[in-house]
Amino acid sequence: MPPDDLAGRRFFITGATSGIGRATAQALAARDATVIIGARSEEKARPFVEELRGLHPRAELSFVPIDLASLASVRRAADTMLASGRPLDVLINNAGRAGRGGTTADGFEITIGTNHVGPFLLTELLLPMLEAATQGRIVNVASRAHVGVRRLDWGALARPPGIRGGMSAYGVSKLMNVLHAKELARRLTETRITTYSLHPGVVASEIWRELPRPVQWVMMRFMISNEEGARTSLYCATAPELSTSSGRYYDKCQEARPSRLALDDGLARELYVRSDAAIRSATPDR
Q1: Distant-in-sequence, close-in-space partners of 104: CB < 8 Å, separation ≥ 6
Q2: What is the C-alpha separation between 235 and 7, in angstroms, rounded?
Q3: What's the CATH architecture for 10-282?
Q4: Does residue 9 have a pLDDT over 70?
Q5: CA-CA distance, 234 to 151, in Å (whole number)?
Q6: Mean pLDDT, to the nearest integer, of 228-241?
């Protein structure tokens, strides 16, 4: 690919200062894209933006603070994005967490809140920017971990949480990512927006930072690099041949079959409705 083949196209990546998100941002900047770094930590984001500017002076780079575990933070980030008045070509819902339990500022189980509820709201708020693009794309970084979920317990969207946290919540959140992309594809049929979900591979990234150190050490011996993990995200975000595909699931840069639950149209619709209702309940003044 020529180094400037993405010049003028705008990408917003959440969780872009570490792991797969960082590698994705680096690859897009190297192709002269406009890259908006979404991250919680300004302390990490600002030096990263400057580093990319030094390496890729033709890329347009900026930082938008966002904490997906806070619906107020998600709304502020969306307001900042919308205030630009410019289209958004690709939203990459990349940020995530796994491991210990807890709750978000809005009372959701923290893994579900960070991996699904926050990205769900962000996506809804940014739809006008994506619709304004020539061909908007929504990329949900999910995981093959969704295959282990045998039943979608709606207690996952309750406040206080109706399910336990930890790795079980991680699998549920990743199933939600796949179902979310599937239902969005149905709802956005009459637009120029397409959606994708994907398994990046088992990547040695900071998403596992909440796990006990010995467990991290054993797992990472069998994991792939962040650069390898970013390949399928980049494929879904940029491949011309996917411009007419929507709502599908990818692994190793090719379409793959997700779990039986992930193929359930009714479940995808119910998740969308329940997620929207849960967010409205958590922020009744909006």
Answers
A1: 69, 70, 110, 113, 114, 117, 118
A2: 17
A3: 3-Layer(aba) Sandwich (3.40)
A4: yes
A5: 31
A6: 95
What is the C-alpha end-to-end distance of the chain, expressed in Å? Answer: 45
Domain ranges of the chain: 10-282
Percent of the chain at pLDDT above 70? 91
Half-sphere exposure of 118 (CA within 13 A, CB side): 35
Cα 144 to Cα 233: distance, rounded to the nearest angstrom: 14
Residue 119: asked if its preceding bond is cis (omega within 30°), the reply is: no
How far apart CA 196 and CA 15 sit, in angstroms, is 18
Residue-wise pLDDT tens digits, 75-92: 999 999 999 999 999 999
Q: What is the dihedral of CA 38, 66, 98, 250, to 10 degrees?
A: -40
φ, ψ at 58 (rounded to 5°): -85, -15
Strand-by-strand arrangement of the 90-93 sheet: 60-65, 34-39, 10-14, 90-93, 137-141, 194-199, 248-251, 254-255
Give the separation between CA 18 and CA 215, rounded to whole angstroms: 20
The token duo for 243 is 């411009």
Residues with a known catalytic role: 170
Q: 127-149 in b/e burial notation, b at 16+ Cβ within 10 A? A: bebbeebebbbbbbbbbbbbbeb
Q: Are strands 10-14 and 34-39 parallel, antiparallel or unpaired?
A: parallel
Of 255, 261, 227, the C-alpha closest to 241 is 255
Per DSSP, the three-state class of 173 is helix
CA distance to 109, 116, 178, 202, 228, per residue, from 19 (Å): 23, 18, 20, 12, 11
